[in-house]
Write the C-alpha cells for this entry.
Amino acid sequence: MNRSEQLFRRAQEIIPGGVNSPVRAFRAVGGHPLFIQRGEGSHIWDVDGREYIDYVGSWGPLIFGHRPPEVLRALQQILEIGTSFGAPTEREVDLAEFIAKFFPSVEKVRLVNSGTEATMSAIRLARGFTGRERIVKFDGCYHGHGDSLLVKAGSGVATLGLPDSPGVPQNLAGLTTVLPFNNPSALKSEFDRHGKDIACVIVEPVAGNMGCVPPRAGYLELLRDLTQRSGSILIFDEVMTGFRVARGGAQQVYGIEPDLTTLGKIIGGGLPVGAYGGRAEIMDYVAPAGPVYQAGTLSGNPLAVAAGLATLRRLDEAAPYNNLETLGSRLERGLIEAASKAGVPVRVNRVGSMFTVFFTNQDVMDFESAKTSDTQRFNRFFHMMLDEGAYLPPSQFEAAFISAAHTNSDIERTIEAASKALRKV
Ligand SMILES: *Cc1c(COP(=O)(O)O)cnc(C)c1O
C-alpha cells in the first residue's frame, strides 16, 4: 500500500468519504485519491514522490500555477502585520476596485469567502430586490451547495449521479425551475408563462461544471433580453470563468452585461475569496446600506485578499490570455489528432484555457449531450493519463485548466501521453 492509500484509509475513518469536498474522492473514476505533497509552477508531487503535470489547478484558481512569486511576497507581507482584524483594511478596497475595473457591469461589490457564499448571497439579494421568489437555473450548471441551487446541479452532484440532495426542503427546491442549457425555446416558454414571478436567472455563461460547454451563438443575448423585459435579475456565475476566459470574464468575451456577477476561484489567488457585485442600485440593497442581510467574520480576510490582489495585479500587467489561448489550441489540436489516429470518438470543448475531452461522437451543448459520453472510457483514460504523469480532473463532467505556468514542453508531453492512452482505452 502506498502512502496516498494509507492516508486515505486514515482519512476515511475520520472525514466523511475521506475528503473535504466530494469530487476529490475519485469515486467516479475508481481507485483512491492522490494525497498531494507540494506544487511548483505547472507541476505537483504526490506523497509517494510521483510528479504530475497539473490540469486541475485547485479546480480553477491557480491561473499562474503553484507558488507564483508575487503571491508569496504578498502573503509574506501580511504575516508581518496580522492575519485578521474583523475591521476594514485598505487592500479590500483595492481588490474591489480591481474587480470593478475589469468588470464594467460591476459598480459595487461585496467580498465573501467562497463561490457558494457569493451565489447564495446573490440569489437572496435578487429575491429581496425584486420581491419575487422563483429562480431559474440550468441542468448541469453548478453554483455551489446552497439549498436553492442544489437542484439538478453539475460538478460532484453530476459526477455522483445525485439529481437532488436530501436535506434541501421541498418548498425551497420547488421555487427553483431547472431548464436545459442552450435551449432557446425552453427559455422562451418559461418566460411566457412565469416571467413576472422570476426573481432571477443564474447561469454559468460558459458552463464548466458539466465539463466545458460554451454558450451557443445568441443564447446569452436571448437570456439578457428576456430577463430585462420581465424585470428579472440576470446573474452570471463567473466563479470559474471570471479572469479565466478573459480578464473581464465571459461577459467580456460575449459582450453581455448581467445585472449581478458572482466571482471566486481566481480572485483569491489560491486562498478562499468569493465576491458578488453588479448594478449599484441592486447592491445598495445589501446591509448595512440596505435591508438584505449578509455578513462574514473572515470576509475580506487580509491573507486571502492579498493573494487575490497580487494575482489580479499580475493579470493586469502580464495579460497571459494570448499565451493561454496558444497553449490551449495546441493541446486541443493534439488531443483531437491523437483520438482520431486511435479511432476513438471524442469531442473536445474548449474556451481559452478551460477544456474537456468528452468521449462521445455527439456535439456537447447541454447536460443531456454531455451524458452521451462513455464515462467508462473516460475513467480508463484518466488513470492511464495519471500513469503517464498528467493529472486531469477525476470526472468526465469537470473542466480541466491550463495555467500560465504550463510550458510548450508540458503540452507536448501531455499530447504524447494522450496518444499512448487513447490507443488503449
Ligand atoms: C466552483 C464554483 C462554485 C462554488 O464555489 P466554491 O468556492 O466551491 O464554493 C460556484 N459556481 C461555479 C460556476 C463554480 O465553478
